[in-house]
């Protein structure tokens, strides 16, 4: 065990082996929940497997997932010598893209899984784009299913070249990317160097995870607590609930809700059904503020200190990456923006610059349109008041997803905010 914590995203195309890899990591680090082991120990013995086998972990994870039970590859935890890892949302998961962007789960680093027998696929590209836009620091690339390609070095090198090209395209610094030939299913190069890849002398996966840089310490940003819901509880009154993204909330603090623009003194804070004097980042809290009624505030408001209230944007400038749009995006387009707990229709007022993903340079000033695969700087006007922050100041409140036609069509980071 270690006290350093890492939020790890496992990304990659569907069926390339993300769940299997998570199962393998849990298994190899002894982190499979005890009840999972108990349930299947007997069964494994009955079937003459003579002990607990990795396959049973996977069966169980798959089975529970089908039954819609809580065990899922997201939110699993395992520890290495260096870090306690939490797997944050995995793609394939409903709302993954949205969660990843809106700060519900900020990953520090990511493992990209690419199946050796399939190479770069559409979601490989989408997730690498996202990882890049959202500032994932380092990428470990597991070239998976090496057993399927008979552990051939040539095949591995071809896929490495293909992925390197993709990373260069989105300007991911390939010095910060480490490639490893693995088989999540067979366990090659995960916890032990594999005899099947004598031509490979780099890190095994667990060593690469141990070698990740320490995550940036939490910012000393002011309190920001996006409101998820507002309840009325008899005996207490109005109780907004949400997760503290940054800063500290103390009983007695004077707070402000934006954009509703009301405020008051925090009377009580409750966490896990117990009253607490203060709460910090990551805590899910319900609290009560003197003088605030149920209709004064709503989901999408952000609570912050009265003397440093959350910003409310008249307009904001942002860097966006278009992931999938059937046609082109032009000025005037008004899709729904998802930022923290807010969902607000916003108009793309102007497309200011199109960026060349290969060089990072401005490719075109004031382009007429942008389309799938493009990165651009745009100016956005919310159609209703929206609280949002520059990503450089409060990253947790500085990113958003753009949704239309039931899918995420773009993701972005706020560069600057023009307040009312
Ligand atoms: P995900 O959609 O990315 O989470 O992929 P899964 O982990 O569900 O894997 C998809 C399929 O590939 C499953 O049938 C796995 O058993 C299989 N699979 C995953 N990793 C490996 C591997 O390393 N070798 C082989 N042969 N099969 C694998």
TrEMBL record:
Q: Which reaction does it catalyse?
A: GTP + H2O = GDP + phosphate + H(+)
Per the UniProt record, which EC number(s) apply here? 3.6.5.3
Q: Where does GTP bind?
A: 12-19, 89-93, 144-147
Entry superkingdom: Archaea
For Mg(2+), which residues are the binding ones?
19
Recorded hits in Gene3D superfamilies, A to Z, give:
P-loop containing nucleotide triphosphate hydrolases (3.40.50.300), Translation factors (2.40.30.10)
Where, per UniProt, does this protein localize? Answer: Cytoplasm
Broadest EC class? hydrolase
Output the PROSITE patterns linked to this UniProt entry: G_TR_1, G_TR_2
GO molecular function, one example?
magnesium ion binding
Identify the GO cellular component terms for this protein: cytoplasm
Q: Which residues form the Tr-type G domain?
A: 3-219
Which keywords appear in this protein's UniProt record, sorted alphabetically?
A: Cytoplasm, Elongation factor, GTP-binding, Hydrolase, Magnesium, Metal-binding, Nucleotide-binding, Protein biosynthesis
* Task of the protein: GTP hydrolase that promotes the GTP-dependent binding of aminoacyl-tRNA to the A-site of ribosomes during protein biosynthesis.
Q: What is this protein called?
A: Elongation factor 1-alpha
């Amino acid at each position: 065990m270690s006290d350093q914590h890492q939020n790890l995203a496992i990304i990659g195309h569907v069926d390339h082996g993300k769940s299997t890899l998570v199962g393998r990591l849990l298994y190899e680090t002894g982190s499979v929940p005890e009840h999972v082991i108990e349930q299947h120990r007997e069964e494994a013995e009955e079937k003459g497997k003579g002990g607990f086998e990795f396959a049973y972990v996977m069966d169980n994870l798959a089975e529970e997932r089908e039954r819609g039970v809580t065990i899922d590859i997201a939110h699993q935890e395992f520890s290495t010598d260096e870090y306690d890892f939490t797997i944050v949302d995995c793609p394939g998961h409903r709302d993954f893209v949205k969660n990843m962007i809106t700060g519900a789960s900020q990953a520090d680093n990511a493992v990209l899984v690419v199946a050796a027998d399939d190479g770069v696929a559409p979601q490989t590209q989408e997730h690498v784009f996202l990882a890049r836009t959202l500032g994932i620091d380092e990428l470990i690339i597991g070239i998976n299913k090496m057993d399927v390609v008979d552990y051939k070095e040539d095949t591995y090198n071809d896929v490495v070249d293909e992925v390197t090209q993709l990373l260069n395209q989105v300007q991911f610094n390939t010095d910060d990317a480490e490639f490893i030939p693995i088989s999540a299913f067979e366990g090659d190069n995960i916890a032990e160097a594999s005899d099947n890849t004598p031509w490979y002398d780099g890190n095994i996966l667990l060593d690469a995870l141990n070698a990740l840089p320490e995550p940036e310490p939490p910012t000393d940003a002011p309190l920001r607590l996006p409101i998820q819901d507002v309840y009325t509880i008899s005996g207490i009154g109005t109780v907004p609930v949400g997760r503290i993204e940054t800063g500290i909330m103390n009983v007695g603090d004077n707070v402000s809700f934006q954009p509703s623009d009301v405020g008051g003194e925090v009377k009580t804070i409750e966490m896990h059904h117990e009253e607490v004097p203060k709460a910090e980042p990551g805590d899910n809290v319900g609290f009560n503020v003197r003088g605030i009624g149920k209709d004064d505030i709503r989901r999408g408001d952000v609570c912050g200190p009265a003397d440093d209230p959350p910003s409310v944007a008249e307009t904001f400038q942002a860097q966006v990456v278009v992931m999938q749009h059937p046609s082109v995006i032009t000025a005037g387009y008004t899709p729904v923006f998802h930022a923290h707990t807010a969902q607000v229709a916003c108009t793309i007022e102007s497309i200011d610059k199109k960026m060349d993903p290969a060089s990072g340079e401005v490719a075109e000033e004031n382009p007429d349109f942008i389309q799938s695969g493009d990165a651009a700087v745009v100016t956005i006007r919310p159609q209703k008041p929206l609280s949002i922050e520059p990503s450089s100041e409060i990253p947790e409140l500085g990113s958003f997803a753009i949704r239309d036609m039931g899918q995420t069509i773009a993701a972005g980071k706020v560069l600057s905010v023009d307040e009312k």
